[in-house]
Write a structure and sequence with these properties.
The structure is a homodimer. By secondary structure, the first copy, chain A, is α+β, with helices and mostly antiparallel strands. Chain A has two helices and four strands. The first copy, chain A, is about 30% helix and about 45% strand. In chain A, strand 1, helix 1 and strand 2 form a beta-alpha-beta unit. The longest helix of chain A is centred in the middle third of the chain and has 15 residues.
Chain lengths: ~90, ~90
C-alpha cells in the first residue's frame, strides 16, 4: 500500500476531488493528503468535509497544515497560501 | 486579558483582517482565533500566513480546525465548510 497518496485540488467541481479521495481509500490507501493553493483552498476544505461526512465513516482528519509558497508569475515572484489536509484511517 | 479573541474573515481586503489580528495581539491577547466560512476560507488562511510571516514573530499556529455548518438560505438548508485557525504566543 502506498502511503503517499495525494489529491491536488484545483478548479474542477468539488465532487471530482471527493471521488478521487474516496477511490484512493477504496484502493487500500492508509492515508490521503489533500493539497491546494490560493483560491482552491476553500474547495480543498469542502473536499475533506464532504468525503468524511458522506462517504468515509472510518476515516478521520489527522492533521491540517497551512504554509506560504513562492510562485513565479509573469509579474515576478509572489506569495501564495497553501493547505494540506491529511486524512487517515481510524485505528 | 481576554483569551477569547476572534476575527471573523469575510469579503473585505485581506489586510483588514491581518490588521485586526495584529491589533488583538498588540492589545495583550494570548490567543486569537481566525474564523471563516465558504469562499472566505482561503482569505482566512492568507490572513494567518501574512500575520505570522510579516508581523508576528513571536506567535505560532496552535491549531487548525475545519468543520461543516448548516445554514438557512432562501433555497432551504445547505451545508457550508468552515475553518478556525488559532494563533498563540510562543512560550
Amino acid at each position: 500500500m502506498d502511503r503517499d497518496n495525494t489529491v491536488y485540488v484545483g478548479n474542477k467541481p468539488v465532487m471530482n476531488y471527493v471521488l478521487a479521495v474516496v477511490t484512493q481509500f477504496s484502493n487500500g490507501a492508509e492515508e490521503v493528503a489533500i493539497k491546494a493553493r490560493g483560491k482552491a483552498i476553500c474547495r480543498a476544505v469542502d473536499t475533506a468535509e464532504i468525503a468524511l461526512n458522506r462517504f468515509l465513516q472510518d476515516v478521520k482528519k489527522k492533521e491540517i497544515i497551512t504554509s506560504t509558497e513562492e510562485v513565479e508569475t509573469d509579474a515576478g515572484r509572489t506569495n501564495v497560501s497553501s493547505i494540506e489536509i491529511i486524512l487517515t484511517h481510524r485505528t
